Amino acid sequence: MRAARGGGTAAAAPPIGALLRWFARAARPLPWRTRRTPYRVTVAEFVLQQTRVETAAPYFRRFVRRFPSWRALARAPRSEVLKAWEGLGYYARARRLHELARRLVRDHRGRLPADPERLRDFPGMGPYVAAAVASLAFGAPVPAVDGNVRRVVSRLLARDVTDDEGREILAGWMAGRPAGRFNEAMMELGALVCRRRKPACGVCPLRRGCRAFAAGDPVAWPSPRRRRRPPRILVGAAVTIDGRGRVLVARRRDGDMLGGLWEFPGGKVEPGESVTRCIRRELMEELGLEVEVGPEAARVRHDYSHFGIDLRAHWCRPLRGVPRPIGCAAVRWIRPADRGRLAFSRADLRVWEALERAPAAGQREGASPQQPRAARIASSTCPGEAPRGTAARRRSARPGSTSVPAVS
DNA sequence: GAAACGTGGAG
DNA sequence: TCTCCAAGTTT
Q1: Least C-beta-crowded within 10 Å: which of A12, A203, A315, A379?
Q2: According to CATH, what is the number of the domain A16-220?
Q3: Is a pLDDT exceeding 80 seen at residue A272?
C-alpha cells in the first residue's frame, strides 16, 4: 500500500483482491460466460465490439446456435453469416470473423493459437480482442484494455490513460492473478460500477486507491473527446415492382460500406437534382435499367456512424433493359415474402416495414396511374426474431431461384 | 494519427 | 431533437 510515494510513474496498486471478490459476487450471468471455449469467446468478442451487452447477447446466442463451431462457421456461405449479423452493424466484423474461421480451418486445423501475438495475425484480431481471447480462453497473462478498462484506470490515476499505458500498468497489477478473471473483473467493474455517467463509487471495491474518487469528481475522467456534427445527405431509392409483383434488390460490394448487404438500389441526390431524377440516374448507372419513377413509398431518416441519410424511397416500374450488376455485386427480383432470406441494413429494413404498413400507398387518389397494382408487401422475418436456423437450412428453394438471368 | 465503419440507448 | 458513445479494428 505504500508503493509509488514520490509521485513517480508507478501507480499504487489498487486492492485487486477486493476487486476479484467483488467480481465473484456481482458478475452477471452473461451467455458467453458459460462454456468458455475459444470459439465462443472469440464470437463474443467480435459481437461485443463497440456494442452494448444487451444488444450483443441475443445475437451471440443466435450466432453460436446457428454456427456452433469454427468448422460450421467456415463452411457456411457468406450470405448466411451476414444474415445472422443483420441489424447489428459494423458488418466488417462478420466478414472478418467468417474469414478467420475459414483460415483457421484451412491452415490451422481449426485451432486458435493461445499466443496473443500470433492471434494478432488473424483478421479482426486487434490488440483488445487478441488479449481478451488469449486471457479468457487460454489463461495467457496479458491485460485486455477496452473502453471500460481504460475508463477505470484513468479514474484510478485521475488522468487520461492511453491503451499502451493501461496495458503496462495493468500488467503489474495482474501479476500472480488469474488473467482471465482479472480482465473480466476490470471490464465488469467499468460496466456496472465505474460507469461513464453516474458511477457507483459507494460500492466500488477500488475506491480506496482511486484518485478520481479522492478528487471528488470521477466523471471528469476520461476527458470527453470532441467530434464534429456528422453531415446529412439526401438519398433516393427505388422500390421497383415487376409485372409479377416482385421487387428489385441489389447487393452491395464487399469492401463498401454495408458490404455484402442487400438494398433498394439508389444513391445520393446530387446538388440541384430531384429525387426522381436521382433514382432514374442511379438505376441506369448501377443496373443499366431504365425505370419510371412514381410517388414516394417510404421516407426513412437514419444515422450511420459518421453521417446521416434522409432516404426517399419511390415506387418504380421497369421500362427498358434487364438489370445487371454494374455498380453492385448482384441484383435480384425477389418476392416480398422472401425478403427475410436476405440481409438488409437497418435503413432498408425500415423501408420494408413502411411498405408493409401501407401496401396500398401506390393506389391512393392522386397517385400516378402507372402505379404497380397488387404490389402487396407481405411481412417476413426481422432481425431480433426467433432463430430460423433449421427451417431456413431445410428450405429447398434458394433465394436465387427468382433471380434475373445473367447476373453473377 | 485520423477517419471510416452501424446501431440503439441514455440523458 | 440532439449529443455522446458502447467489450475496437483497419486503412
Answers
A1: A203
A2: 1.10.340.30
A3: yes
* CA distance to A66, A103, A165, A283, per residue, from A175 (Å): 38, 33, 16, 60
Secondary structure class of A294 (helix, strand, coil): strand
Q: How far is the CA of A104 from the C1' of C7 (A)?
A: 23
Amino acid of residue A56: A
Domain ranges for chain A:
16-220, 232-402
What pLDDT sits at residue A359?
64
CB of A50 within 7 Å of some strand B atom: yes
Q: Which residue is nearest to nucleotide C11 (CA to C1')?
A: A255
Average pLDDT over residues A145-157: 97
The pLDDT value given to residue A10: 54
CATH number of the domain located at residue range(s) A232-402 in this protein: 3.90.79.10
The number of helices, as runs of H, and strands, as runs of E, in chain A is 15, 7
Question: Which letter does DSSP use for residue A382 in this model?
Answer: -
Place of cell 458490404: A259
In order of A28, A182, A188, A200, the CA distances from A204 in angstroms are: 16, 15, 11, 7
The residue whose CA lies nearest the C1' of nucleotide B4 is A306
Task: For residues A398-404, give the mean pLDDT.
Answer: 28
What angle separates helix A78-85 from helix A53-66, to the nearest 10 degrees? Answer: 150
Is the confidence at residue A396, as pLDDT, over 70?
no
CB of A61 under 7 A from strand B? Answer: no
Burial class of residue A343 (count of CB atoms within 10 Å of its CB; 0-12, 13-18, 19+):
buried
The set of strand C positions with any atom below 7 Å of a protein CB reads 3-10
Footprint of strand C on the protein (CB under 7 A): A 30, 32, 44-45, 48-53, 90, 92, 96, 123-130, 132, 146-148, 151, 184, 187-188, 190-191, 196, 224-227, 229, 305
> What pLDDT, in 10s, does the model give residues A336-373?
999 999 999 999 999 999 999 876 544 433 334 344 43
Nucleotides of B under 7 A from a protein CB: 3-11
HSE-CB of A99 using CA atoms within 13 angstroms: 12
Closest to A339 measured CA to CA, from A255, A235, A245, A236:
A245
C-alpha to C-alpha distance for A80 and A74, rounded to whole angstroms? 11
Q: Can you spell out the DSSP letters for A328-352?
A: SSEEEEE-GGGGGGS-B-HHHHHHH
